[in-house]
């Protein structure tokens, strides 16, 4: 079990200790450190290890999740993290991280165009390649299915337990997800259900549905790395992450005619952010019936 705390003691004693001297008010120092600690704890890594993919996943969560933060709060967090990142970048050799890149300069503020575009999501053919490559790894294959067919987030995947899986009197399987005191029900399609039942036969006694090699809870960063390697092995030249696959899931449901409010509820997205998918749906050039190609054989 990994009991490391982030940000690390080294980061606090060296980088943070020096950076906070630039801040005059105690409340400001607390807010900055809270922003650092929150993203580090979510990604389970030190601040200097956060990649652009990591940062985008975090800001997608706080921007478009069911419990999304206000634009002003997101802008404030982003500004603070950019400031810390710039400080590290300017002193990267002295801090012993010569390859450090300030990834927060590449994160868009909520005021910018948030519409998704077709080149930002995998095609159906690319999704087929990804699934085919993942089939030899039951855990990874199932995680991809749950993102693609149930629109789960990376965080939801990592927090899943066998107790979250239920079957009602009609033999319909669904997930019961709870966050911040709110409960959400997500139906498991039949083509995913058979793989989930098979997986539960082997790993249903574990405290978490998906575990790392040490038997502990799978972390978001580890999951992202697994998916990155999978996409490379699948021979896909474009770079995608789980959030992109999730966006594809939502896009294809909407393009297939599913009502916006139902998709928002299914995916745990605040309905006010569903406009982001409007342009990408207009750009798609296949028939809605092609959505059925996502059924897993």
Automatic annotation (TrEMBL):
<dbReference type="InterPro" id="IPR010998">
    <property type="entry name" value="Integrase_recombinase_N"/>
</dbReference>
<protein>
    <submittedName>
        <fullName>Tyrosine-type recombinase/integrase</fullName>
    </submittedName>
</protein>
<dbReference type="GO" id="GO:0006310">
    <property type="term" value="P:DNA recombination"/>
</dbReference>
<dbReference type="InterPro" id="IPR044068">
    <property type="entry name" value="CB"/>
</dbReference>
<keyword id="KW-0238">DNA-binding</keyword>
<dbReference type="GO" id="GO:0003677">
    <property type="term" value="F:DNA binding"/>
</dbReference>
<dbReference type="InterPro" id="IPR011010">
    <property type="entry name" value="DNA_brk_join_enz"/>
</dbReference>
<dbReference type="Pfam" id="PF00589">
    <property type="entry name" value="Phage_integrase"/>
</dbReference>
<feature type="domain" description="Tyr recombinase">
    <location>
        <begin position="117"/>
        <end position="290"/>
    </location>
</feature>
<dbReference type="InterPro" id="IPR050090">
    <property type="entry name" value="Tyrosine_recombinase_XerCD"/>
</dbReference>
<dbReference type="GO" id="GO:0015074">
    <property type="term" value="P:DNA integration"/>
</dbReference>
<dbReference type="InterPro" id="IPR002104">
    <property type="entry name" value="Integrase_catalytic"/>
</dbReference>
<keyword id="KW-0233">DNA recombination</keyword>
<dbReference type="InterPro" id="IPR013762">
    <property type="entry name" value="Integrase-like_cat_sf"/>
</dbReference>
<feature type="domain" description="Core-binding (CB)">
    <location>
        <begin position="2"/>
        <end position="89"/>
    </location>
</feature>
<comment type="similarity">
    <text>Belongs to the 'phage' integrase family.</text>
</comment>
